[in-house]
Every structure is written in C-alpha cells, then in structure tokens.
Specification:
The chain has 475 residues and is an alpha/beta fold. The protein is 31% helix and 20% strand. It contains 12 helices and 17 strands. It has helices at 48-56, 100-114, 130-142, 156-161, 184-194, 224-232, 279-293, 309-321, 337-350, 373-384, 390-403, 439-453; strands at 4-5, 12-13, 37-41, 74-80, 83-89, 117-123, 146-151, 173-175, 212-217, 250-256, 259-265, 296-302, 324-330, 359-361, 416-423, 428-433, 461-466. Strands 4-5-3-6-7-8 form a 6-stranded mixed beta sheet, with helices on both faces. Strands 10-11-9-12-13-14 form a 6-stranded mixed beta sheet, sandwiched between helices. The protein has a 3-stranded mixed beta sheet with strand order 15-16-17, covered by helices on one side. Helix 12 (439-453) links the parallel strand 16 and strand 17 (461-466). It is elongated, with a radius of gyration of 27 Å. The two termini are 42 Å apart. Residues 1-31, 64-72, 202-207, 235-249 and 267-283 have low confidence and may be disordered.
C-alpha cells in the first residue's frame, strides 16, 4: 500500500493527485521470503475492486457500477506497515451460478484455496444476504482465516448497522468505506494479524552494503591469481606455474570502472573432496565459504584446453548456490581458429544449463579484454536483483498458457493459475498450479521468462505450489 495513514485512526486517505503508479514492491526489502496471499472475495458489486484499489493506493483494478466487471483472478503486490503481501482480486462469487458466472465463481474458489487469508467483502448497506451466507459456508469448509469486511460504511449510521454482520458467525465485521478510505487502516491491521509468520530474510553471511563481492573460481592453475593481479595493476597474489599455489581466499578491494569491488581469490577446486589431502581439503572448504560470502562468481576456464569435469562441477556449484555468474575464458590470446571452433561446440553442448551467464574472452597474462569484465559483472548483478511486478508477471503467464498450454497427461492438463515473485538474489518464483508441471514445461517457462524479462547472469528458482483437491484422498 503506497499511501499513508491520515485523518482519524484507522482511515487511509489518498487524493486523486496523490495516487502513485509505481509498483509498491519496490519499497520492500529484496530478500524477504515468499509474500503471503490475500484473496478478496464476495458476491458481485459489493466493492471488491474498489477495496483493492484502496489497498494499493492507486487505480489498478477496473471499477464500474455494473456487477461482474472483474471476471478473472488478478494479483497485485501490496504492503502495509512494512509487511508485504499479494492481493488477489476476484470476480463476484455466486455459489449456484451457471455459465460465465459459474466460471467466475470457480476462479474465486481457486483463489480461496491458494490464499493464506481471505477478505470476505459484504455490502454493509444491504446486510447479509442468502448468497453471503452460502459463501460463508464455503469459507468455513476451506479452513482459511477470514477477515470480514463490511464495505460501503460511508457514515456512522451504516457503521453501526455493520454490527449486525456478527450473525454470519465468522468473527468481527470491520466497517470500511473503500471509496473514501474510512476504516481501511484498521482493516489492514486485522489482515496483518491474520497473516502467517514472516519467513526470515536470506543471510549472505556478511553485512549488507559496501563493495559488491566477487568470488574468483576455477580449477587449479587456470589463472585466477594472474587475473586478480591484472585487475589490481600490481602483484597482490602469488603466481606460480605449480598448481594450487593459492591456499587461502584473499580478499582485495580493487577500483574498477569508477567503483570499488571486493574480489575474493580462491584456492583451485580439486576433483573430489575425498581426493584432497591436508591443506588442499581445507582450501576446498574455504573456497565454498568464499562462494557463500559472494554475490557474483567469476568462473575462470582455460580456453586453450577442453572443458573438464572440474569446470562443469564448479559452474554447477555456482548455479546451486543461487549466485550470479560470469564465465571468463582465459588464455584467449593463445587460441587458433580451429580451437575457437571446437570451443564454441563444447560450450553449446556442455554448458546448455548456463547459457544465461555472460561470457568474456580474456587474457589474464596480457590484460586483453579486461575492460569487458566489469560490464559483464554489472549485467549479472542487475539480473540477480531483477523483480517483475506481479501484474506484469501474471499477464505474461496468461499469454504463455494461452499460446502454449501444458500437454494433456492422463486426461488432465495442469495449468498455471497465477504466479508471484517470492524474492530476488536470485529471482525466485512461485507458480500456483492446478497440477504438477513436467520438467520440460518448466524449462520452457524459464526460457520464456528470460526472453521476456532478461535475467542475464542469474539462475532462476521456480517452485510450484499445487492446489490440493479438497475432499479427496482424505480418510
């Protein structure tokens, strides 16, 4: 919610010229866990979309004085008192409806099934109707926390009448005027109280702020220390033709491109932990620790040699860690045309799972193309921190599912019901689905996400939350 409390306690006011158009999630800490879902349900024309706009502090949901304007579930990012959540606006709910109205009701049922909290909106000027009571029975069976909203309480007289809604038996009615903002602050306080506990933010092992942290990774003797010395403009790390000269990670503050970076030079990773002895074993552990402290990894590969198992394992380690990544092909100046041809084929065949990583061809010894490294690192960090507004994300998935639906398997066709971005660094997405999505379809989703929104230089974490069928499989 981008507005600010104003006027009497519990009111939220936004004038026409104060309504902002920025996405509220930009003001929320980047590394919080998945945002809880709040579904707004109720019969047609009780003011659900007006309430959603009030919560958001801007005009997003379509509002018209005609029942049934909202037909689909539409998700938006919002926040209140420093707590973020996803608001799902639904069409008017008529439990015994048919045709299009039945489809709208089914969308509302899905939203309730996926929600952490349900805001049930009732028209306080009309009171509880038979339809409202039927919806209450469905909400009770859902087992979800319900916040009862008595909307259109534009004055004290209607606010007093709202007390009659206690008869619905789902708790205290919260009188509000979505149109004017009356009581909306108290309502959102009640919603926050009903939300589940917040997940702890991700800890990268170091304080936030300060120079961005870069881990230099690669197998022994690939040129990591030479690269560090080249970037620093002086010999800060020991360089020797004997593999494994570097044992301890060495942190260096280096000025590049007008800003300071913290580079971590790490010991070369050996083939297997069990094959490492003594200092080499602990060097490997310290290398993993350096990766955990880093934000982006620059993986050095010897371009003059075929890609080795160690190279692939290091790249997989970075992907699994969720860090941003740049792949630097060292000793590029030593390659002839034939080797460059075969290297391209090796990359295409063996690094298909990391095609998103920016690639730079460098020479740590001569300094060739060093100026390309910092832009590649910045690109990777930008991708690592990219957040897509929920409205854009769900429009993307609506188009994707429409143009390329999941294949039918066993007579069923799983669908992406809606999606939310749960976090960044790396970008994490939660797909609320009607069934299990096959791995091939999830890869297709990742490819399309990258084509649409970029995410260069970062792995993507895509998780599913499958809607459980109630009443089945229970004893």
């Amino acid at each position: 919610m981008n507005g600010r409390p104003g006027g009497p306690r519990g009111e939220f006011t936004v004038s026409d010229n104060e309504i902002e158009t920025v996405d509220v999630v930009e003001d929320v800490a980047a590394d919080e866990g998945p945002a809880p879902v709040v579904a707004v349900v109720g019969r047609p024309n009780v003011g659900k979309s007006t309430l959603v706009n009030r919560i958001l502090g801007r005009r997003e949901a379509v509002v018209e004085d005609v029942p049934g304007v909202t037909r689909d579930r539409v998700a938006y990012d919002a926040s209140w008192s420093g707590r973020r959540f996803t608001v799902v606006d639904t069409g008017g709910w008529l439990p015994d409806s048919a045709g299009l109205a039945a489809a709208i009701a089914e969308q509302a049922r899905l939203a309730v099934g996926l929600a952490d909290v349900v805001m049930f909106v009732v028209d306080a000027t009309v009171g509880a109707t038979d339809v409202d009571e039927a919806v209450v029975e469905i909400l009770r069976r859902s087992g979800k926390p319900v916040v009862l909203v008595a909307n259109k309480a534009d004055n004290a007289a209607v606010e007093a009448d709202a007390a009659l809604l206690w008869s619905l038996g789902i708790g205290e009615p919260h009188p509000v005027s979505a149109l004017h903002g009356r009581g909306s602050g108290d309502l959102l306080d009640a919603v926050l109280a009903a939300l589940p506990e917040e997940a702890p933010p991700e800890d990268f092992g170091e304080e936030t702020g300060g120079p961005r942290r870069i881990a230099l990774l690669g197998r022994p003797n690939v040129g990591k220390s030479s690269l560090l010395n080249q970037l620093a403009g002086e010999n800060r790390a020991v360089v020797d033709a004997v593999a494994g000269t570097t044992r301890d990670p060495v942190d260096e503050l280096i000025e590049l491109g007008g800003r300071t970076w913290r580079f971590i030079d790490t010991a070369g990773i050996r083939r297997r932990h069990r094959e490492n002895q003594g200092a080499d074993f602990y060097a490997t552990l310290r290398t993993q620790s350096a990766l955990e402290r880093a934000e982006v990894a620059v993986v050095l590969v010897d371009a003059d040699q075929p890609l080795a198992e160690q190279d692939l394992r290091i790249i997989s380690m970075v992907v699994a860690s969720g860090r941003a990544m740049v792949i630097a092909y060292n000793k590029w100046d030593l390659l002839d045309e034939e080797r460059r041809h075969y290297l391209e084929r090796e990359i295409d065949r063996q690094l298909h799972h990391a095609r998103w990583a920016p690639r730079v061809n460098v020479s740590a010894k001569t300094g060739r193309h060093m100026e390309k490294l910092v832009p590649a690192i910045e690109t990777a960090l930008d991708g690592w921190g990219t957040r897509v507004p929920t409205s854009k994300l769900n429009q993307f998935f609506a188009d994707l599912v429409s143009s390329h639906p999941h294949p039918v398997r066993g007579g069923k066709q799983p669908r992406v019901l809606f999606a939310t971005q749960a976090g960044v660094r790396p970008p994490r997405f939660v797909l609320f689905t009607s069934g299990f999505l096959e791995e091939g379809y999830r890869r297709y989703i990742e490819r399309r996400l990258r084509e649409e929104f970029g995410f260069d230089g970062t792995p993507l974490d895509i998780a599913m939350k499958i809607r459980e069928k109630r009443g089945k499989g229970k004893k």
